[in-house]
Design a protein that fits this description.
This protein is α+β, with helices and mostly antiparallel strands. It contains four helices and eight strands. The protein has a single domain, classed as Gcn5-related N-acetyltransferase (GNAT) (Aminopeptidase).
Length: 166
């Protein structure tokens, strides 16, 4: 893993030391707690992330792509990825993918920092970022970070214009 942002993330008087790192590998044992918890909540996208990584289908390794992890005390507590948007015709459209933070680490700024890191990584390679979420709490987070609702597209609920490449 590449070194990344580290800082004190706080919410409601609580805080946790977290490090956001670009993941160059995704060992099954490190992502297993995220898979287990997400599936208990009826979500399959974290398992799909791990399976796609393991098979090589999506390793977030095309130009501009990246997968980031949030680590506390050496444990992976959250993930968020950046891909070229497979639903867009333009190669300069990126897609925020697979944001998931363990329940015990929510409302502490971990998800926010993961998305901020993805947006920063997207500046330059991408002119636009898109995503799709059915989760109202996640939608509020994305909107607070500058994404706007985009209900006209079946594959996109939110969009952010990043501007010209640098």
């Amino acid at each position: 893993m590449q070194r990344g942002w580290a800082g004190h993330l706080g919410g409601a008087g609580l805080g946790v030391e977290a490090r956001i790192e670009r993941l160059r590998e995704l060992p099954a044992d490190r992502v297993a707690p995220l898979i287990t918890e997400s599936e208990q909540g009826g979500l399959r996208f974290v398992r799909r992330l791990a399976e796609d990584w393991a098979t090589g289908r999506n390793r977030f390794d095309r130009p501009g792509e990246a997968l980031f992890g949030a680590l506390t005390d050496g444990h992976l507590v959250g993930v968020c990825g950046l891909n070229v948007d497979p639903y867009a015709a333009e190669p300069r459209v990126g897609r925020v993918r697979h944001l998931y933070v363990l329940t015990a680490h929510r409302r502490l700024g971990v998800g926010r920092q993961l998305v901020v890191t993805v947006v920063a990584a997207a500046r330059g390679p991408f002119a636009t970022l898109r995503l799709s979420t059915a989760n109202p709490e996640a939608a509020r987070l994305y909107e607070a970070l500058g994404f706007r609702r985009h209900p006209a597209d079946a594959h996109c609920t939110h969009v952010m214009e990043l501007g010209a490449a640098r």
